[in-house]
């Protein structure tokens, strides 16, 4: 793939253009999906990652095929540069992973960046069917399985309540009734009482299928007169 001469040169150049165009399309598909989700790595990032993988593979194979010396070709490994690129892309993926409010975000985007590099390597190697199949099958967890995940995944919060009474039974009865009404599950609890101030402090680790029950729960608990303070925070 070194010098473009005659028909062979045009064919090689056309193949390069085809590979780079396909890399833009594949990277663009995943980039649009990330843009719609409001993620940091969008269209340009994913396209550049996929293009990089394609160019790395073109460079590896081109460097190998342009060497006419048989002894040198035996020593060369066309996959060495590609292996280095796969290792290096991990640093870019790590850059989009964030931990905020006790939750880790960006794992899917990081995995998608790594996937784009692999698909780019497939395109650069001329494995078009593998690249297209990988793209189609990769869209399944990003679309169909995403909806399933939202139904399965449950949200967890920490509910902290300060009550102007040390009557545990009365407080527990009212709290249990409200929690059951909003379909909120208590995973663990911690109760302490300050007898001097006649104040009961309750900390609950609660779980629900979405954030809506937490919002409704907060509104209902706020209306109870004996509750002095109330907070719902993310689980650390």
TrEMBL record:
Membrane-related topology note: Multi-pass membrane protein
Keyword Membrane: yes
Main location: membrane
Segments forming domain MgtC/SapB/SrpB/YhiD N-terminal: 20-149
InterPro entries xrefs: MgtC/SapB/SrpB/YhiD_fam (IPR003416), MgtC_SapB_SrpB_YhiD_N (IPR049177)
Any Pfam family matching the protein: MgtC
Domain of life: Bacteria
GO cellular component, one term: plasma membrane
Keywords: Cell membrane, Membrane, Transmembrane, Transmembrane helix
Residues that span the membrane, as ranges: 12-33, 45-64, 79-97, 104-121
Keyword Membrane listed: yes
Localization: Cell membrane
Family: Belongs to the MgtC/SapB family.
This protein's name: MgtC/SapB transporter
Native source organism of the sequence: Thermodesulfobium narugense DSM 14796
Lineage start: Bacteria, Pseudomonadati, Thermodesulfobiota, Thermodesulfobiia, Thermodesulfobiales
